[in-house]
Amino acid sequence: MVEEITSVEQLEEMISEPSEGVIETLPRLEGDIIVLGAGGKMGPSLARMARRALDAAGISRRVIGADLFPSAEQEMKLRQAGVETIRCDLMDQAQLDSLPDAPNVVFMVGMKFGATGQEALTWALNAFLPGLVCRKYSNSRISVFSTGNVYGLVPVHSGGSVETDAPNPTGEYAISALGRERIFEHFSRTMGIPVSIVRLNYSNEMRYGVLVDIAQKVWNGEPVDVTMGNANVIWQADANAMALQSLAHAASPPFVINVAGPEIISVRRVAYEFGELMGRQVTITGSESADAFLSNGRLGHRLFGYPRVPVQQMIQWVAKWVMRGGQTLGKPTHFETRDGRF
Fold this sequence. Notes:
about 15% strand, two-stranded antiparallel sheet, about 40% helix, globular, Rossmann fold, about 350 residues
């Protein structure tokens, strides 16, 4: 394990590194892979991971990324890595229908941040688009990115929600995310589409994530609110690996899997740890609530392997990255939000 991540190039190489499980799984799935929403926060690294896994296995198949690609640089990097890219407004029926068929689909499109004030667009992307995608890819298996927020707040001592728990979403974002799941479930049941639903909670790398949010507050001398006193974190490469491996478990009705780290972190303790690593005083506000948005990731660990990067390593990497002024995406997770308004 490296001591420090010193560049975006090194980071992108690390978060797209396939696990042994991915290298073993993807060759067993016939046909090409298309990633819908390949230009988002996780899309580029997941698409690159799929490409690298197939290359490592000596399998010649297409990996295609479809998106509007707001970053031309990111699109260029994907092409250089061997991922084909197609610029596409997925909400445009004609453009969506013009995409190539592929037996394996990863659906990564969704809206969370900015949902408040743009509720109609949030519902269109999260709950209407899935129906269009199911009709287009009715003969494919589909891995669907969702969120642990569909469970709602649960007691910290519970260890987090498990896949069999009934959803109890709070706020329009989480409710629309459950809507996304239900639309995929409907078409999975009525059309026999194999689907896996990946409830993620929360992905982290150096440029964004719960740990980055806390580290930036400590480094900048801002108070850390501990009202949402606990959270899950998982290294982005591990989240990508689990999502790709979930394609092999896609089923009708859908297979549901939590993707979360093994630890439930204490926001207060992590803040103090960042303070010690950074040589900064830590200011705490609020007091811990007895509940939080928490997921139990044990089933995913059993099926897809234990996460390769522990939270302690992530904390050390993030501390050095933030202290050095490393690039961030400027997209806070708002993990501390308790009323579901993002």
